[in-house]
Write a sequence for this structure.
């Protein structure tokens, strides 16, 4: 009986560090994935906020511009604001976000008003 207890004691002392290390690594991996998802979500919200506030700005300050001139001015401002935070966005995605923002603004959507102008 003493032999079995001693064997189990040695086994537990040998395996416990391996189990703790494995669980620690797994926990670190999971937390890293969660952080990455949250960072992406925050960045997406930040980009959307920048686009919407810029569209409001363009509508207020550059009301005399038409069509492509407004689009190009909006792109220029948005890219500059995002570059300040080291965020890159491709042209296609930027145009989609601008068009969605303009559509919401033109419809007078309540969702559009939730975005604050940020710097």
């Amino acid at each position: 009986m003493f032999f079995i207890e001693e064997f189990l004691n040695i086994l537990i002392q040998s395996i416990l560090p391996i189990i703790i290390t494995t669980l620690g690594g797994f926990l670190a991996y999971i937390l890293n994935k969660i952080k990455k998802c949250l960072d992406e979500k925050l960045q997406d919200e930040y980009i959307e906020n920048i686009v919407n506030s810029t569209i409001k700005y363009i509508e207020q300050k550059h009301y005399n511009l038409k069509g492509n001139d407004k689009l190009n001015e909006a792109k220029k401002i948005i890219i500059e604001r995002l570059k300040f935070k080291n965020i890159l966005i491709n042209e296609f995605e930027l145009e989609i976000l601008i068009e969605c923002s303009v559509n919401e603004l033109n419809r007078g959507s309540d969702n559009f008003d939730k975005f604050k102008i940020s710097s």
